[in-house]
Amino acid sequence: MTAEQRLADAFVALADSTADDSSDVPGPLSVLAHRTPALLNIRAATVVFAPGEYEAARATGSNPQVSRLEHEAIGWREGPGHDCHRADAGPWAQTALTSHPTRQRWPHYTPQALTLGYTHVAALPLREHTVTRGVLTLLSGARNTFSPATLVLGRSLADFTAVMLERAHEADRSRTLAAQLEQALTSRVVIEQAKGMLANRRAVPLDEAFDLLRRHARARQRPLRDVAREVIEGRADPDLTDQ
User: Fold this and answer.
1) What fold, for 178-241?
2) Domain ranges in the chain?
3) 3-state secondary structure of 145
4) 65-69, Cβ contacts within 8 angstroms, sequence gap of 24 or more
5) CA separation (Å) from 12 to 34, 41, 44?
6) How big is the chain by its Cα radius of gyration, in Å?
7) pTM for this structure?
8) CATH homologous superfamily for 3-174?
9) Which band of pLDDT confidence, cut at 50, 70 and 90, is reported for residue 172?
10) What is the per-residue pLDDT across 66-99, written as a single tens digit (0 to 9) for each?
């Protein structure tokens, strides 16, 4: 498979990972983390998705060791992923983990990454409009640092994943809203039907029948739609239905 075919296959996999179940955020994160090393010719990659509090971020990696490192980094509040997410301003430049300033900035993350054989890192944000929702972190060894072309392609992968996640989130919100509207409409139909039956049975105007329903439900601290359904099904409290 050529490099172009691998890249096209990765984009298709990212799109498919959000097509079936929009709530399955780990899907696209896993695809991105596992496809990135081969596409960019680097040693490993991690992905963090943190739309809310960073401590509740979801993280995964291209291998179990870097996955564990990224999860620990979230707790330490260290590492290129954390700093890129906090800065909310753009990609974190390629950084040598062997430098003294880096050891000082990330006292827990740096020695762990070096122990795993990674000497250089770079972080690319997953951005939703102007807000960073996650980070793609690239890790490599001393003989395989990141070229400008590598970082550009990595940024494209990060941007595409961010778009997929945002579209999936929007689809999720649309389904939730549709379900809420359907439930509200169903409840309204049940209440209107019960109101008509109660008005006929007690020989009162519709407004008074609705007031009876509402007062009965409030007095017993029950949902109005449940009381209305009992009226329709003939199971209502005789105090409500009888004259």
Assistant:
1) Arc Repressor Mutant, subunit A (1.10.10)
2) 3-174, 178-241
3) coil
4) 65/116, 66/116, 66/118, 66/139, 67/33, 69/109, 69/112, 69/113, 69/116
5) 14, 19, 21
6) 28
7) 0.65
8) GAF domain (3.30.450.40)
9) low
10) 999 999 999 999 999 888 877 655 556 788 999 9
